[in-house]
């Protein structure tokens, strides 16, 4: 190994002086400790402002610690490999192509006068985190350093710089994931957080056994691949910018700088302690969220579990279903929402007032997050829901109209064709389905209300879409219900049969991946919207969502607040629903009530309580 004194003498004086808190160091060469590894990129001065902006906008893979003063030359520098052999100090690039491996830059002293040195933080050690979590270090399948992969995830393009995100992977036993996340937080703060846990194809990586850099770390049965952003992203940036001349630290090599230049993102805080949760089995996918944010969502789940009708819904509750459903929705890009439970037979259409308001509230927040949202409803109620959406836009509840679809059904192929482009399961149109108070098919093939009245003649077979989705990788589903006869409640059907009145007959047999149980189903729709706000306001989850690339989502927070449910907006929605039944020329209108309870009372109080829990700072 290179002696510490030699390493310290060879640290970049000009670069170190510009790093935070480094100016006070008087005798670097006399230090014998307090060092951290870093990587180096050297670019023409003309590209320096653009590259600095690019690093600041993609801080996860490019944690910039500082840069040298432009007029300073670059001294000879010794490198520290992360293996037990000495490796070259620099790779030379010309117009995006690596044209040499150098041990010294002395012969380029003239060119260096017009170049700038950038230093990237490499202080977080995955191996140290694995050791702290009690996970034995795996041997590499070849020589060199642990493998890194170019992904299909683009870094945010800034000032003309663009390149793919590069990640490194370690296999982790499934039962050690939580322990590892705590260790990475303890050692690296936000900078230690992984950016993906699960199927590598979700990052555009295949196969794992062929990394773009370094050697493969073998996955064993029961392992979950965990990915972190790699500072080797900087090499891709150098290649992409096609500078006439550039230099960079080779893969597996770092330089040493004083420890007191640690990035603030590397410092752990109680608000950032992560939790990890499985949200999909096919493809395998985990998500992370801070413990305080998860606790707030659990409070929402407990709040909506109030049972105003004394139906016994407490027996149906599954822990963290709201959290898991919201995490899955947070990762979704295109969401299909369905609602509609015909119970008011003297009205045309006979929709109840529970369901559509909660569905629209969820769709409104999905819109605010920039996701695609659509609705599928019964053909007989198409005009009603079209009018509801039009009026919701006029009233400012929805930002823009959402597509309203119908489904005739008939076969498994029909359902697959509805869900997928050209019926191809590899090209789903939606990646999450949500049913909010939607009539669900019972085991005998009929649909029942709570009084055991068969309403099959009023219900289109939208259940088939949920059943088809179970066999299409990449589509998840959520059911929101308050009595066990709603679409998706097949997940809790045994509890429904045992504890809900008439449950042995009315229990829905079609299950969703997640079952959100609420005293009134609208409340479940509101709670999902609120949970999405909490997640996207959580720095831990928000960074994971964007793979630590691009700017944070804080800029959208004001529009998210405006998109949250409110008493005023939900009163408008209920009024729109009732008014459109009036326009159908029917007497004996349902009135401003939901599930037989006046809106101004328990419902208004619930909405306000949910919003209060959601918007309290973490």
Automatic annotation (TrEMBL):
This protein's record includes keyword Lyase: yes
Keyword tRNA processing carried by entry: no
Keywords associated with the record: Lyase
Record domain D-glutamate cyclase-like C-terminal: where: 300-610
Family: Belongs to the D-glutamate cyclase family.
Protein's recorded name: D-glutamate cyclase
Protein's organism: Rattus norvegicus (Rat)
This protein's encoding gene: Dglucy
